[in-house]
Each structure stands twice: as C-alpha cells, then as structure tokens.
Amino acid sequence: MLLLALDTATPAVTVALHDGTSVVASSSQVDARRHGELLLPAVDRVLAEADTRLDAVTGIVVGVGPGPYTGLRVGLMTADTFGLALGVPVYGVCTLDGLAYASDLEVPFVVATDARRKEVYWARYDNARTRVTDPAVDRPADITEQVAGLPAVGAGALLYPDTFPQAHEPEHVSAAALASLAAERLAAGEELVAPRPLYLRRPDAQVPKNYKVVTPK
Known about the structure:
The chain has helices spanning 35-49, 69-86, 95-103, 144-147, 155-159, 175-187, and strands spanning 3-7, 12-18, 23-30, 59-63, 90-93, 109-116, 119-127, 130-131, 136-138, 152-153, 167-168. It is α/β, with parallel strands linked by helices.
C-alpha cells in the first residue's frame, strides 16, 4: 500500500505519503488564496522526499470538507485526476475527522474550522476516531449550549474563545493525519466515503439578481 493524501478544505495545502504502516513524507503550507498554485509542487516535494514516483501510488486519499467551494474543488479535482490517470481508487475522508484524529483526544470534544461569514464548520466527537454528529455550519453563538464544557480543536474554535474556551491545536488539518486515518480504516475493512465534496452552503459567488442574458439577434 502506498497512499497519496491531500486536503485543500482549509487554508492549509497539505500532502502526505503513507506506506500502510506510517507516514513516509509530508508537506503543509498555510495560504488560503493559493491552493491551486501550491498543491502540485507540494505533491512533487513529497514524492521526492520519499524517493518514489507517482505511478507507485496505489490509492489516493482526499479531504472532502466541509470547506469553501473553491478550496475543496482544487483538492477533489486533483485527486480525481490522479485516480483516473493512475487507475487507482480515490478515498474520501471528512476533513473534520482528520483534525479529530490528529488531536489524539480520548474524551468527548469538538472540531471547528473557520467557515468565514462569522460561522464555523463543526462536529462533535466521542474520541479521536469517533464522530457522533454530522458536520454542520453555524454561528458560534448559536451552538454554545451544544459545545459547552467540551475541549475543542481547529482554527474555528481558536477564533471564538467565548464559545470554545478550551480550544487548542491542531489548528489546521494535515494530510499525514488523513492518510493515517484512511490506512487504519482500510486495514480494518471499513468502507470509506466517496470522494464527493461536502458543501454545507451555497458558494460565495452568486449570479446577480435580475441578471439578463444578452444574446446576439
């Protein structure tokens, strides 16, 4: 097994290789505006660090979000392209699950990422491997009672200390954690989700109201 993992659902552009036992190479850069520019060079760096070629990869792991439309599209389209070109399966993993796994917490907690618009993408977990609610998007003040008293990880939690007073790192997801989680689930015979984007709201860019299509006569 040689898994190539990547995620662009948060400001982090993150890539890793996992050989079924451990992470053999990884790269992460935080830049919310340069996902498309940074992702492929990061793949090249990781392959070079591992002294291997892309055609040695046996599976692709990609974070499916939730996250902003543009960022998610970069990672998912790249993963699908690699999968088609190499003829290997593409496995989707919830980005929040990757953050939870990296936390290594064994008590109930919350993962929250920055959804912009003064909102967070979030979910509750019983432990680092077990999510107990579906991912959602809400204003922090609207979920205070639901997350009260729980530790929290993720950039969204760190942004809103009034709602998440016990927030701490990891701030962003890492492909190393996604790859490790996926490898663990595959080894256990679990079926991973399809690599489809987890959009929880409409994209920021909208067609203006009363837009008129002008066509030549």
